[in-house]
Structure formats: C-alpha cells, structure tokens
Amino acid sequence: MHRILTRGSPKLEVREYLRMLRRNWILVAVFTMVGLSAGGLASILVKPSYTADTQLFVAIQGSGSVQELAQGNTFSQARVQSYVKTVTTPTVLQPVIDSLGLQMTPGQLAGKVKATSDVNTVIVTVSVTDGSPVQAAAIAKAIASNLVETVEDLEKPKNGESSPVKLSVISPATAPTSASAPNTKVNLLLGLLIGLGLGVGIALIRAKFDTKVRGEIEVRKVTSAPILGGLSFDPESSQRPLLTQTPSQGGRAESFRQLRTNLQFARVGQKSKTVLISSSLPGEGKTTTAINLAISMAQTGQTVALVDADLRRPMVSEYLGLERHLGLTTVLVGDAETNDLLQPWGDGGLYVLASGQIPPNPSELLGSQAMGDLVAHLEDIFDAVIIDAPPLLPVTDAAVLAQHAGGVLIVVGSQKTRVGELERSIDALEKVSANVLGVVLNRLPTRGPDSYSYSYGSYSRSDVAASTRRPARIPEQAKSFSRRNTFEADYGNNTESDQAAFRVSDRRG
User: Fold this and answer.
1) Cβ contacts of 107 within 8 Å, gap of 6 or more
2) pLDDT (tens digit, 9 = 90+) per residue, 265-315?
3) pLDDT tens digit sequence for 107-132
4) Of 142, 126, 137, 52, which is closest to residue 84 (Cα–Cα)?
5) Beta strands in 61-122 (DSSP E)
6) Element holding 130 (H helix, E strand)
7) N or C: which end of the chain has fewer CB within 10 A?
8) Nearest CA to 213 among 55, 450, 48?
9) 490 lies in which domain range?
10) pTM tops 0.70, yes or no
11) Residue 59: which CATH number?
C-alpha cells in the first residue's frame, strides 16, 4: 500500500550520508583528535635530522667554438645521470669515511646521501642528512670533493691527456640552522587526514550495519506513509506522562496539537471515526500517545471515546487512575452495556472504556462481531474513537482489530525499533488490508540530525494542569452513569458466585 523502493535519489543519498556523519560526529571527532595527537607525538619523539646540500657543475673542456660548445653541452647532459649514480658508490664514499673517521660502511653512508639532477641541466645536487648539522655539511663537502676527483680519473683518456670533463663546486655545503625532519606541520596535517579518514570510514560502516529507526530516513526505507508527528524525548515523561501535566504552551503539548491537526487532514474523506494506535514492539509509547491524542482532541470540544484494547498488558486505566476490571471484555462477553461502563475523564468530552478482565482468548474477542458492533456504536455517539491496541509483532491482536478501524497510526520509538521490525509490522497490516494513516516518531532526541523540538512564547508553573476525574457532559445518546457506578461497586466487591447472580438479576431488572 505504502511500500516504496529503498534506493532513493542521489540527493537523498547524499543527505543520508551527511546525516550518518552527524549522528556519529563524536566518533569522527575522537578519531580526528587521535590522529592529530599521533602526528604531534611523532614530531616530538622522532630525533631531529639536518640536511646539507652542495651543487656541482659539469663542463666539457674545449676550444670554445659555438659548435664545440653545443656538442659539449649535449655530451655533458648525457653524462650527468651517470655522475648522479656514481655519488653513492663505494669509490666516492669510502674515501669520505676514511677522511672523516666515520664508523659506518659505504652502504650505510649511502642511505644518508641523495644525488639528483634537474632535467636539461648539467648541475648535480648532493644532499646529506645526519643527526648533526656540522657533520652533514662535512660529509657533503667531502663527497663533492671526491666526486670531482673520481670523475676526472674515470674520464681521463688512456694516452695521459687531461680529462675532457670537469666538475666544479658551485654551491659549497654549509651547516643547516634548522632541522629538515621531523616536519611538524606535515606530521600534524597527515595525522589529521588519517584520523579524519578513519573516523568517517568507521562511522559509515557503523551506520551501514545499524538498522535502528532513528528518524525519517529509516522510515522512508519501509513505507511512504506520511509522518504525522514527532515527539521529542522528555526525561520527565515517565513521571508526568499525561498532556494535562505539562505546560500548555510547552513543546510536548504543541507536538500533540500538531499530531491532532495532521491526523485530521489524513482522515479527510473517510467516514470512519475510529483510529487504531499500535506499534511494532512494547515500550515504544503507543499507550501514552493514544491517551494524549485523545486528551488533545477532547480539548477542542469534541466528544472522544478512548478504548483500551490491549488485552495483554492494559495500561490506560493505570495512567488515568480509572477502574480497570470492568470495561471492554465485559461488554464483549455480554455482561454489560457499553454506555454503562464508559468512564468520564477530565473537563472535556473524553470518555474511557477500560480493558476489563484479561481474557484467555484476546484475539478471538477483538476479531469478533461483537467488537465490530461496539466500534459502530461508539462511532454513533462520539465524534472520534481512539483505540489503544497491542503491539503488532508479538501478537496478532492489533492486525485483527485493524479490520474494525478506519485507519491505523503506527508509533515508532526512535532508536528502539529496527527497520526490519517496522517492515514486518507494515506487512502484517497490509495482509489484512488495513489503512495506514501515518507514522508517529516517538522519543526523538532534542538535539542532533534527528532532533525534534517546538517552542513558542513562554510559560510558568501555573500553566501545568493536574489530571482530574470531574464529571463532564456525556453525549446525548449515552445513558446515565449512575447505574454503572452501582454495577461496578457490586461487581468488584462480591464473590464469583455473587457476580454471576448479580448478572442474572441485573438483566431481569
């Protein structure tokens, strides 16, 4: 009915990745700081080293004519790369070791020496790196001197004439004043990039395997049903769960007003006045959502019937402080009339039908014709009917009951329900052709990418209204409650045989 493909547009995917990063920003920040700290620590722990450079010019000795100069330049460029390779050979390095008294082999010294030559030039650059700036300069000078002698010996003709190639030092080596390594700026930047990359990668992997429903994006992977409301997490809601216990201009009250308005638009064109409220699993807040939605609707002047149809773990009467033992099951088994068991609550037109005794066969009772007749009767005398149903996944009660309701509202607990569980809930409703009106996201964080908050104006403690049970105007079609009160008192205080006798006498009366 409302199923859509999980793959969205590129724009949506980019938004999804950005939201994933925002959800895991602490993880990304931690890895970034660790990488930055590692780069700084490496700069502190690594022993400083110094690099001394010297440059040599390669020239061909000739008469100086234009033709000879051109030929000599071409010859020099062709020989330069050979001289670069010669720098790190034992022929050049061993005399340096002997003259300076270095305690190393030519191979070890070659690891400290680097010779390069720029393209299309005849200049050879020799760089020497050492822990001592003075020694680095001394080694570079000695290598340059030995390279000049070695090339002259190698290029010297056999007839005893002088070498046609001449190397000259054009930039003598000097002791460097600052260390060439470690490069603190480079290390910090490298550590920052590595840490950031690891943080982003782990965050995306973590988000990929995290199937919890956290906000709209996860809901959109399962259904295209509209999100009719978002309720932010309130740590005080466990102590003050009712709408009448919160400030009338507070964010929680406004959230339910928005839900009430959106639900009204979602039901446009529907004849049924009944809305079933359920969730995938227990503990997602379906009962408090049903109660507060009913209260919010009653505050507009509507007459609202709230039915506790969770015959496994009924909680409506406990939240509202009402009698539970007489209610829905009492009506369904034919022991009392509906109007006799409706309990008024608050100052508005809210009436509650409690669960009654917990039966051994809830699914059969909720799917019976008696339940359908009850819903039809309530729709005749009330402006709206709200049914608090059991969760969809543990039992089939809600799916069975959905056939009697005009629409279903699914409450999804943020970070509690998984995408697969929500998908199975939607499937269960689709199998019975239920009309999914929309989704309510509950327990949303007040900050972050999935946050939900609303504030308007200011309020004081005096705005908080205490819950009451003062009588309210009952719809004209409903009967007097005096008879129900007597029936309830007698039923609750007698033994089982007395109750049976009372039921018989009550019917005769």
Assistant:
1) none
2) 988 878 889 999 999 999 999 999 999 999 999 999 999 999 999 999 999
3) 999 999 999 998 888 899 999 999 99
4) 126
5) 113-117
6) strand 123-130
7) C
8) 450
9) 216-470+484-508
10) no
11) 3.30.70.1130
